[in-house]
Amino acid sequence: MIQAGRIVSVWRYPVKSMAGERVASADLTTLGVHADRTWAVRDVEHATTTGAKKLPGLLWCTARYPHTPPADAGPGHAPEVIIGFPDGREISSSDPG
Predict the structure, then answer these.
(1) What is the pTM of this model?
(2) What pLDDT shows up at residue 19?
(3) pLDDT tens for each residue of 32-46
(4) Burial group, residue 41, by CB count within 10 angstroms (0-12, 13-18, 19+)
(5) How many helices (H) and strands (E) does the chain have?
(6) For residue 96, what pLDDT band results from cuts at 50, 70 and 90?
(7) Residue 75's pLDDT is what?
(8) What is the pLDDT of residues 62-71, one digit of tens each?
(9) Three-state DSSP class for residue 33
């Protein structure tokens, strides 16, 4: 058997355009890594999602799940996510307001 490559690390990106989290293992589906990019930043003014092309500062933020995402995580069932900012502050998607 010819070795084509070697997996050194596995990463999951909970929020589109934000830095992700290194994981010990991940379930793969036909859509990719389970719970990858479950969240996106919403542009309320234009009623669309947006990313780093329009908001390059998103690339300086981090996103991680505080718990293992459930099997039904995905559109309509996004699990809690923690967003980290460059100044060290963190907020949770479950924080009020």
Answers:
(1) 0.87
(2) 98
(3) 999 999 999 999 999
(4) middle
(5) 0, 9
(6) confident
(7) 81
(8) 999 999 999 9
(9) strand
- Degrees, nearest 5: CA angle 91-8-13: 25
User: Is 14 in contact with 38 (CB distance < 8 Å)?
Assistant: yes
Phi, psi of 59 (to 5 degrees): -65, -20
Does the CA dihedral 5-10-14-15 come out positive or negative?
A: negative
Long-range contacts, stretch 65-69, CB < 8 angstroms, 24+ apart: 65/12, 65/14, 65/21, 65/35, 66/92, 69/34, 69/35, 69/38
Pull the structure tokens for residue 62: 């981090």
Only one residue has tokens 């234009």, namely: 46
Which residue, among 94, 89, 95, 82, has the nearest Cα to 18 in the 3D structure? Answer: 82
